[in-house]
Amino acid sequence: MVTxxxxxxxxxxxxxxxxxxxxxxxKPQLQPVKPISKSVTKQAEPKPDAxxxxxxxxxxxxxxxxxxxxxxxxxxxxxxEVMKRMLADATDKLKKLAEYISDNNHLIAREYRVHEGTHxxxxxxxxxxxxxxxxxxxxxxxxxxxxKMEQVMGLIFDNLI
Length: 161
What we know:
This protein is α+β, with helices and mostly antiparallel strands. 48% of the residues lie in helices and 17% in strands. It has a domain at 106-143.
């Protein structure tokens, strides 16, 4: 007779010394049995309270995302409005400047010359009535600095070579 011990993991098998079959029959040979473990475990189903909390948290997160998207869209609209106003203001100023130049073109004179140190062209815009310089592009001060930098660079490269 065969009896099993430890039903969780089948690890031992006992055979009663009394023969089950005819007394003259050979005793059966038993092979060692590998333990069988019950590795299949049931996962505990979440409690209804946990499901509700998860759903509420997900809903709250979605509401926050929707609010942030609405705020972003509002900010983008405000930026567009500001940019349109700035563009309109700049356009108006350019139109006024163009009108002023076209109306007073005979009062504005231009002089073109070449800077001696850098051999670059400069433009001097001045009022023809008063002789006052309105603008010089590029300025003499800037070109003088460029000339000095070129001289220093020349000295550095001459010393290196």
